[in-house]
């Protein structure tokens, strides 16, 4: 078993044929290897000739090279979650403070103690992994554009104030936004020509033009990525998922983001495709049974809408896990498609909107109400996905 701890430009590895009886002592005696991300490092890790490699998925970009090289050379890759590895390293192995070598040893040992697939993270298929990569790139481009646009608007406030707060969107055909294209010298506009001719501003500078050109380049890249996403979403294996998303009125980006996190839904279900439900004795009343919808709860966690409780004595603390991007996307959908009455264009948004209105009328804080509606929407989405996939199959 090969434990591989990935860093920015190298990996620390530990190769074991069996689990050491005294891991702590073994840690101090073992000759850990470090391989750089170059031709020599790749050659060295392949010369270890391991059949299985365990990796903690820290930093998708850092581990991608090593995962690809090992997989292409017949090595089976298994991913171990961050929290699972930390608990295993501390409680089972009692290794010293966390470092790369300790993680590599813990990963190698983990394979001997746990063989069940439930103990490892599910590996996304190639198209879903590509979808996630594209979504992350879109998110990055959005973060890159914001400060440039803000700086550009500040300059326009004294150079061409009449358009400083104007909104300009990319056309459906992919043309860059008219205002930014005009400022960059890439598009013509009589409207802006006339406005500039009569402007009270001090005149446009080359700095504004360069900023506008940067925005246009980023907008073109966004358009290209969005087209790639649309092509992936047209795949027949996503048909039932897209049908459920359309019922909610999710946009292309939100669809792709959620899909990249939850596909396939079978990971959350029983083998027969039904949600996992368990019954336990109620804590408050031992004579009664409480129902626990495990599949639904796991689905919520993945989308970042199910807080995990960490209590100790009198102290109670809740920690939110899962995708922050998904949580933000669903919250934004509630804010823009559920809360405004005029945008409740389907049965789902109308139903959620009625609940939202009732809670706000009852005096609940707006942020709390939106969060509660987001959680309710997540549960409804899970049930709709289960229904659509059953019908499709």
Report a brief summary of the structure:
The chain is an alpha/beta fold.
Oligomer: single chain
Rounded mean pLDDT score: 91
Which percent bin holds the helix content? 55-70%
Radius of gyration: 26 Å
Largest sheet, in brief, is: 5 strands, mixed
Number of helices: 15
Given the C-alpha coordinates, what overall shape results?
globular
Amount of beta strand:
5-15%
Could you explain the architecture of this structure?
This protein is α/β, with parallel strands linked by helices and 393 residues long. It folds into three domains: 2-119, 2-Layer Sandwich (Nucleotidyltransferase, domain 5), CATH 3.30.420; 127-233, Helix Hairpins; 238-393, no CATH class. 55% of the residues lie in helices and 11% in strands. The chain contains 15 helices and nine strands. It has a five-stranded mixed β-sheet. Helix 3 links the parallel strand 4 (52-55) and strand 5 (76-79). Helix 7 crosses helix 9, helix 12 (294-302) crosses helix 15 and helix 14 packs antiparallel against helix 15. It is globular and about 85 Å long. The mean pLDDT is 91.
Topology (elements, then pairings):
Blueprint: E1 2-6, E2 10-15, H1 23-29, E3 33-36, H2 39-46, E4 52-55, H3 60-72, E5 76-79, H4 82-92, H5 100-113, H6 126-159, H7 178-184, H8 190-197, H9 206-233, H10 239-248, H11 252-262, E6 277-281, E7 289-293, H12 294-302, E8 307-312, E9 315-320, H13 324-338, H14 347-361, H15 366-392
Parallel strand pairs: 1-4, 4-5
Antiparallel strand pairs: 1-2, 2-3, 6-7, 8-9
Helix pairs in contact: 4-5, 6-9, 6-11, 7-9, 10-15, 11-13, 12-15, 13-15, 14-15
């Amino acid at each position: 078993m090969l434990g591989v701890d990935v860093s920015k430009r190298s990996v620390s590895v530990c190769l074991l044929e069996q689990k050491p009886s005294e891991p702590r002592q073994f840690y101090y005696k073992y000759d850990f290897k470090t391989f750089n991300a170059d031709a020599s490092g790749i050659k060295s890790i392949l010369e270890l000739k391991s059949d299985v490699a365990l990796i903690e998925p820290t930093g998708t970009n850092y581990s991608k090279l090593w995962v690809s090289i090992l997989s292409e050379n017949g090595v089976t890759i298994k991913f171990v979650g961050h929290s699972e590895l930390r608990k295993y390293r501390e409680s089972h192995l009692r290794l010293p403070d966390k470092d790369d070598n300790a993680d590599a040893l813990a990963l190698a040992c983990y394979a001997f103690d746990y063989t069940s697939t439930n103990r490892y993270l599910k590996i996304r298929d190639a198209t879903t992994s590509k979808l996630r990569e594209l979504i992350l790139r879109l998110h990055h481009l959005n973060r890159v554009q914001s400060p440039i646009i803000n700086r550009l608007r500040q300059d326009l406030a004294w150079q061409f104030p009449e358009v400083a707060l104007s909104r300009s969107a990319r056309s459906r055909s992919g043309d860059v936004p008219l205002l930014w294209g005009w400022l960059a010298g890439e598009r013509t506009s009589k409207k802006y020509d006339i406005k500039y001719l009569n402007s009270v501003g001090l005149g446009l500078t080359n700095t504004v033009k360069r900023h506008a050109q940067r925005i246009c380049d980023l907008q073109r890249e966004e358009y290209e990525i969005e087209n790639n996403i649309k092509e992936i979403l047209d795949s027949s294996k996503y048909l039932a998922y897209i049908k459920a998303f359309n019922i909610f009125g999710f946009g292309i980006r939100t669809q792709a983001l959620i899909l990249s996190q939850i596909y396939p839904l079978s990971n959350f279900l029983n083998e027969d495709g039904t949600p996992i439900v368990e019954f336990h004795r109620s804590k408050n009343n031992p004579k009664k049974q409480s129902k626990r919808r495990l599949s639904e709860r796991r689905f919520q966690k993945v989308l970042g809408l199910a807080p995990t409780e960490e209590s100790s004595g009198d102290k109670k603390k809740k920690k939110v896990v899962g995708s922050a991007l998904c949580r933000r996307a669903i919250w934004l959908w509630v804010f823009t498609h559920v809360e405004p009455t005029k945008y409740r264009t389907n049965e789902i948004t109308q139903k959620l909107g009625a609940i939202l209105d009732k809670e706000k009328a009852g005096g609940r804080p707006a942020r709390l109400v939106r969060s509660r509606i987001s959680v309710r929407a997540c549960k409804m989405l899970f049930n709709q996905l289960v229904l659509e996939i059953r019908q499709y199959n």
